[in-house]
């Protein structure tokens, strides 16, 4: 288990927790925003994403506790909003891309030090985020042809 306590692995876990909690905050806010716009189906999808990202955060917290580390998200990203659903989806794709890049880097580092337990842990999260990215891209692709390009929806904030 010595490899599992490598400081860089702990750094990857801390950064992952920050990114996952940032995603929770982002999706939760977007669910509320699109509810104001009257887009209930989109709101539910964002709520579902919130739950999935929360589950990832919980998994990371559990791993940190197993390693004897007190979990702490060091820096949450500010929520990004847009005036329409397409803009929100593009921002979420950017966030998911950052998560994918982070987990890919963590997997590669763990492979370089031979930490198979951490490889599996980060690979599972990587695969989940790739799946989220695919779903967001499909949603955006399906939405673009039918989404009214001229209407700008906004909430007061």
In a nutshell, what does this entry contain?
Pfam families: Ferritin. By secondary structure, the chain is an all-alpha fold. Helix content is 73%, strand content 0%.
C-alpha geometry: elongated
Average per-residue pLDDT, rounded, comes to 90
Largest sheet: none
Structural class, from secondary structure content? mainly alpha
CATH overall fold name: Ferritin
Residues in helices, as a percent range: over 70%
The name of the CATH architecture is Up-down Bundle
What's the SSE pattern?
HHHH
Q: Indicate the low-confidence ranges by residue numbers.
A: none
Instruction: Please state the CA-atom Rg, rounded to the nearest Å.
Output: 17 Å
How many domain regions? 1
* Secondary structure tally, helices: 4
Give the full name of the CATH homologous superfamily.
Ferritin, core subunit, four-helix bundle
Q: What is the class in the CATH system?
A: Mainly Alpha
GO cellular component, one term: cytosol
GO molecular function, one term: ferric iron binding
Protein name: Bacterioferritin
Organism: Paulinella micropora
Description:
The chain is 73% helix and 0% strand. The protein has 157 residues and is mainly α. It has one domain (3-143): Ferritin, core subunit, four-helix bundle (Ferritin, Up-down Bundle), CATH 1.20.1260.10. It is elongated, with a radius of gyration of 17 Å. It starts with 6 loop residues before the first helix and ends in a 14-residue tail after the last helix. The model has no long low-confidence stretch (mean pLDDT 90).
What's the arrangement of secondary structure elements?
Layout: H1 7-36, H2 40-66, H3 85-113, H4 116-143
Helix pairs in contact: 1-2, 1-3, 3-4
């Amino acid at each position: 288990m010595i490899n599992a306590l490598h400081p860089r692995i702990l750094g990857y876990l801390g950064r992952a927790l920050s990114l996952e909690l940032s995603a929770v905050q982002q999706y939760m806010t977007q669910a509320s925003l699109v509810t104001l716009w009257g887009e209930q189906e989109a709101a539910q999808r964002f709520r579902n994403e919130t739950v999935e990202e929360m589950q990832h955060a919980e998994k990371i917290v559990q791993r940190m506790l197993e390693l004897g580390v007190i979990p702490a998200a060091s820096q949450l990203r500010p929520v990004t909003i847009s005036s329409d659903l397409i803009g929100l989806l593009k921002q979420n794709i950017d966030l998911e891309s950052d998560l994918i890049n982070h987990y890919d880097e963590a997997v590669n580092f763990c492979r370089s030090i031979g930490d198979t337990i951490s490889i599996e842990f980060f690979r599972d999260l990587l695969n989940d985020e790739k799946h989220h990215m695919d779903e967001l891209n499909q949603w955006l692709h399906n939405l673009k042809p039918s989404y009214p390009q001229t209407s700008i929806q906004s909430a007061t904030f």
